[in-house]
């Protein structure tokens, strides 16, 4: 028999897989769920830009993992890179106007998916779950 703690994490992983599958509907906007999360972070940061390593940390990826996700977004014009005038070693990821527009359109789809997933959970248990996920590192805000 496994511990309740391990069972919780196993079930959280299953739920994450189910949620990711449902968010495949974002493909109508040309986005994956990870792409959407990147645009969300960029859209909600000061000046709509962030260092690549800070973005990776916010999303929960490695520096190389975030680079693999950013390259296609840059190719299609949703993000761009901006160098730091004071330090040539530092560059920023910036959401473009096109990226903002696509994000706003995709957000409507994402909100509809969210309503479908959580339609039955508009109570105290949702707040408790949010608090638990925040404590475990789910603090993307």
Protein described:
This protein has 141 residues and is mostly helical. It has a single domain (4-135), classed as Arc Repressor Mutant, subunit A (Orthogonal Bundle), CATH 1.10.10. It is 60% helix and 9% strand. The protein has helices spanning 4-22, 33-43, 52-59, 63-75, 97-118, 124-135, and strands spanning 49-51, 79-83, 91-95. Strand 2 (79-83) and strand 3 (91-95) form a beta hairpin. Helix 2 crosses helix 5 and helix 3 (52-59) packs across helix 4 (63-75). The N and C termini lie far apart (37 Å).
Which key features would you list for this structure?
single chain, 141 residues, mainly alpha, Arc Repressor Mutant, subunit A, three-stranded antiparallel β-sheet, globular
């Amino acid at each position: 028999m496994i511990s309740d703690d391990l069972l919780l994490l196993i079930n959280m992983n299953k739920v994450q897989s189910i949620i990711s599958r449902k968010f495949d509907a974002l493909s109508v906007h040309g986005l994956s769920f990870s792409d959407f999360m990147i645009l969300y972070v960029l859209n909600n940061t000061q000046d709509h830009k962030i260092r690549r390593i800070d973005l990776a940390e916010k999303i929960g990826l490695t520096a190389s993992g975030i680079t693999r996700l950013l390259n296609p977004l840059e190719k299609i014009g949703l993000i761009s890179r901006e160098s730091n005038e004071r330090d040539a070693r530092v560059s920023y990821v910036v959401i473009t106007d096109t990226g903002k527009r696509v994000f706003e359109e995709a957000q409507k789809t994402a909100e509809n998916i969210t309503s479908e997933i959580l339609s039955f959970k508009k109570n105290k248990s949702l707040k408790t779950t949010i608090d638990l996920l925040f404590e475990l590192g789910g603090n993307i805000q």
